[in-house]
Design goal:
By secondary structure, the chain is α+β, with helices and mostly antiparallel strands. Helix content is 27%, strand content 28%. It contains 16 helices and 30 strands. The strands form eight sheets. Strands 3, 7, 8, 9, 10, 11, 12, 20 and 23 form a nine-stranded mixed beta sheet that branches. Strands 27-26-28-29-30 form a five-stranded mixed beta sheet, with helices on both faces. Strand 5 and strand 6 form a beta hairpin. Helix 2 packs across helix 12. The chain starts with 20 loop residues before the first helix and ends with a helix. The protein binds adenosine-5'-triphosphate and magnesium ion (MG). Adenosine-5'-triphosphate (ATP) binds next to strand 8, strand 20, strand 23 and helix 12.
């Protein structure tokens, strides 16, 4: 491709709304352009990268025995009503009406559609197991679209769905898909980690997310210092402390804490550690409000809380007015003593003694509080986020935390969808039985952004070779004036093209400085500079984008040199 015949629109300015480097670089290279909030055009340059990722994904899915198909993006409401997700999915679901007033949604995912397809197409256990996939546009009306295509509203997803007669068969396919995902991210050239994930509302028997490790990642990944345990922090269990509760030493006292509302304010005011204070959060319960109690220095894990039978889902903190009704005070003074509701304490709280808690009266706290002697709880649960130094849940080593970008998610669904949608087959005994399902997704467009987060420097992108928009870029110096340069450049360009190398020839009439800056911004792995000076010695200049080392190579050896690098 010659630059003058391509559409290359690089930009110097970084758009104001681009907070993270991948978003900035995707706009500056001109890979994407914004249409509206969370909506992007993929330019010819961006699409080249996207197609390469799609190709790797498709090849690995095919190799794993999955069958490609395409389902409509627009889905009838009726299917979503069968699974009750029409109401439960929430505001992410873009609902639309057709001219006759019938309800539809733009698919944020395709479990309903594929289950409907399967119940019509699959009648016998003999057709199982089978896995279908598609690479297709999804829409989710994200509350805060941001980071460019990383969290967009319209994005490209690969979603696969497997159907089985039983859970053992599902587990088998799940393991194969896990391996296929590892192959995909390895081939793309990313540093990634499969982690245990929360299986949420749907339940199911297992789930893993695939994370690309990067500081800008929105997820926290907990991993062990000594084993290969890794989990999304949402899921990482915090083991019960091995210590037992010390005997009470202090007397129960009521103390004035004027205007001290947060844990830190109370700790500073009383000159004690937040570890000696407990915080009580009132949340919506299934029947009545529930109190969740944590140590002052610990963070609530909302996913763990929402998974408890007593706690309403979605997780909702009570409003000030509702708090007043339960605790007769504002949020800063809620406490466990004489609190008239179901109290669930974190494992760490259950072994505390002589602690400080709100007094259920504005501007007052209680100190020297002890379980059993002064007050009690109803239930002990794991409620908090794991933190650095906690013991690893598998008993080996301690927890460390890294940031990750979720690029894929695989899920053992079980038979929830098949049950609610009556997707049944005849089993070996001729009896009708609900199918067991798995689902497996990859955020194809998000992978592009994640790859840039992991591969860039201050000059621009450094593409992993497998997904670079072009493999080689030729930069001619003074081609318009030097017939010799022009000849050398065209010869090399044609040779590489004939060999099937994806080569970009920058034939623009621009200053060399601009040409080099663009090449570095674009991140093409291999750069060849051809000018009179090196040609005088029968040589051209080769530079790798990754290490930015320039070397001179004999003009008649450059093709071999490149081929050995590309092999
Ligand atoms: P997240 O936690 O990031 O919102 P999710 O867990 O809701 O994602 P899934 O339902 O697991 O997403 O979707 C499958 C994959 O689609 C995700 O792993 C992610 O790579 C991608 N994805 C999800 N939401 C978006 C989005 N708004 N923009 C781009 N990619 C997305
Ligand atoms: Mg997910």
């Amino acid at each position: 491709m010659k630059t003058t015949q391509f559409h290359l629109q690089t930009r110097k300015e970084t758009p104001a709304d681009a907070e993270i480097i991948s978003h900035q670089l995707m706009i500056r290279t001109g890979m994407i352009s914004r249409l509206g909030s969370g909506l992007y055009n993929w330019t010819p340059l961006g699409l080249k990268v996207l197609r390469k990722i799609e190709k790797i994904v498709r090849e690995e899915m095919d190799k794993a025995g999955c069958l490609e198909m395409i389902m409509p993006t627009i889905q009838p409401a009726g299917l979503w009503q069968e699974t009750a997700r029409w109401d439960k999915y929430g505001d992410l679901l873009l609902k639309i009406k057709d001219r006759a007033g019938r309800d539809f949604c733009f698919g944020p995912t395709h479990e309903e559609v594929i289950t409907d397809f399967a119940r019509k197409e699959i009648k016998s256990y003999k057709q199982l197991p089978i896995t279908f996939y598609q690479i297709q546009t999804k829409f989710r009306d994200e509350i805060r679209p941001r980071f460019g295509v990383m969290r967009a509203r319209e994005f490209l997803m690969k979603d696969a769905y497997s159907f089985h007669l039983n859970i053992d068969c599902l587990k088998d396919t799940y393991a194969k898909m896990h391996q296929a995902y590892c192959n995909i991210f390895e081939r793309i050239g990313l540093t990634f980690r499969p982690v245990e994930a929360d299986s949420g509302e749907i339940g199911g028997t297992g789930s893993h997310e695939f994370h690309v490790l990067a500081d800008s990642g929105e997820d926290a990944i907990a991993y062990s210092t000594e084993s290969d345990y890794a989990a999304n922090i949402e899921k990482c269990e915090v083991l019960a402390p091995t210590k037992s509760r010390p005997e009470p030493q202090q007397e129960l006292k009521i103390i004035d804490t004027p205007n001290k509302k947060s844990i830190q304010e109370v700790a500073d005011f009383l000159a004690i550690s937040p570890k000696k204070i407990i915080k009580t959060l009132l949340v919506a319960g299934v029947d009545a409000p529930v109190a969740l109690v944590l140590r002052g220095d610990h963070e609530l894990n909302e996913i763990k809380a929402a998974n408890l039978a007593e706690v309403a889902s979605p997780f909702t903190l009570l409003e000030d007015e509702e708090i007043k009704q339960v605790a007769q005070c504002d949020a800063g003074s809620i406490g466990v003593k004489d609190l008239n509701c179901h109290i669930i304490v974190d494992r760490a709280v259950a072994i505390m003694s002589d602690f400080v808690t709100g007094a259920n009266e504005d501007d007052k706290h209680l100190s020297g509080v002890n379980w059993q002697r002064d007050t009690s709880f109803n239930q002990v649960e794991d409620l908090r986020n794991a933190k650095v130094g906690d013991p690893s849940p598998d008993g080996k080593g301690t927890i460390k935390i890294a940031r990750g970008i979720e690029v894929g998610h695989i899920f053992q669904l079980g038979d929830v969808y098949a049950q609610s949608m009556n997707a049944v087959v005849l089993n070996e005994q001729g009896k009708s039985q609900a199918m067991t399902m798995g689902c497996y997704s990859i955020g194809v467009t998000r992978v592009v952004a994640a790859a840039i987060e992991q591969n860039h420097d201050e000059k621009g992108i450094i593409w992993p070779q497998q997904i670079a928009p072009f493999t080689v870029v030729i930069l001619p110096m003074n081609m318009k004036k030097s017939e010799r340069v022009k000849q050398a450049v065209n010869d090399l360009y044609n040779q590489l093209k004939n060999l099937g190398v994806e080569v970009l020839l920058d034939d623009r009439k621009i200053r060399p400085g601009v040409m080099f800056a663009d090449a570095e911004l674009l991140g093409i792995p291999h750069q060849i500079t051809i000018g009179d000076r090196s040609l005088d010695d029968g040589e051209v200049e080769y530079k790798s984008r990754k290490d930015m080392q320039s070397i001179r190579v004999k003009q008649d050896e450059i093709v071999d040199h490149l081929q050995s690098l590309l092999a």
